[in-house]
Amino acid sequence: MALLKVDFYSNYLQRNVILTAVIPVDKMDGPKLAKRRQGPYRTVYLLHGLFGRDYDWIDKTHVVETAEARDVVVIMPSGEDGLYLNKPEINEWHGKFISEELVDVTRRLFPLSRKREDTALAGISIGAYTALINGLQRPDRFGSIIALSGAFMRDRIIEAVESHSPRKRRYYERWFGDLDTVIGSEKDYVAMIDRFKNDPDLPKPKFYGACGEHDNLCENNREVVELLQDADFDVTYWEPEIGSHEWPFWNAWIDCALDWFAPGEMKPSSANVDYSGITNLRPPDEGKFVLKDND
């Protein structure tokens, strides 16, 4: 497994950016590893959360080992809290950087598959929010979207718009730009999902999500799942009874998500945690999530 640090100039961001890439070009064969191949590789573009950086995934999870077992390339950009969203009013194009430039550059650098079904956009927390937004904007590029503990912020943005607190409004404007323009725009996942209802010819990415019951964002994740199901997306969602908004949860579930994206019998070869126990009970209807009755 090759672990590469890349520094390149972004035309959209008008500065140099950093990314970490995991490429399974030199892996050893073994009973729990996929047969070594030369590419083109299936690829997951993996976004960190707020105040994070590209190397968080290397420091805090064993995603390298799972990617090697699955024969998957993982591309981890450092978002520098730009939230990967476009802010045209101040000429910032973090969304276009993720969905267009990053994909183009990495495909030129590495032997990556150009097929949409081999390309996924994934993230945790606020990175999951923007993975959903950018994945829905470019369904021609991303065949899968993975959202772990998604910080789906639409309701909070509405509250900030209606709030009389300038401080609260400025807090959200730091990441979302002009709040008066968010609802109904490309930053609004409700509006983006409705776009697929109104245009049946748009290809729908498959969606994989997970959020622990002890996470205070759990209800927001359920709402997004319902919206996607109502729009007839292919949705797989897990809501385990354990886990909160924390790295131990994401460490386990990024492995489960990669298993979903690149299915097979291969497992990480030396991980000290057995995740199979937390995913052995599948939801009804072939993996589709059915909301629990809270009464």
What are the SSEs and their pairings?
Blueprint: E1 2-10, E2 15-23, E3 42-47, H1 56-60, H2 63-70, E4 72-77, E5 86-87, E6 92-93, H3 94-109, E7 119-124, H4 126-137, E8 144-148, H5 154-162, H6 166-176, H7 189-198, E9 206-210, H8 218-230, E10 235-238, H9 247-261
Parallel strand pairs: 3-4, 3-7, 7-8, 8-9, 9-10
Antiparallel strand pairs: 1-2, 2-4, 5-6
Description:
There is one protein chain. The chain has 295 residues and is of the alpha/beta class. The protein has one domain (2-278): Alpha/Beta hydrolase fold, catalytic domain (Rossmann fold, 3-Layer(aba) Sandwich), CATH 3.40.50.1820. The chain contains nine helices and ten strands. The strands form two sheets. Strands 1-2-4-3-7-8-9-10 form an eight-stranded mixed sheet, with helices on both faces. A two-stranded antiparallel ribbon has the order 5-6. Strand 5 and strand 6 (92-93) form a beta hairpin. Helix 2 (63-70) runs parallel beside helix 9 and helix 3 crosses helix 4 (126-137). The longest helix has 16 residues, at 94-109. Residues 269-295 have low confidence and may be disordered. Keywords: Hydrolase. One of its GO terms (molecular function) is acyltransferase activity, transferring groups other than amino-acyl groups. This is Alpha/beta hydrolase-fold protein. It comes from Collinsella ihumii.
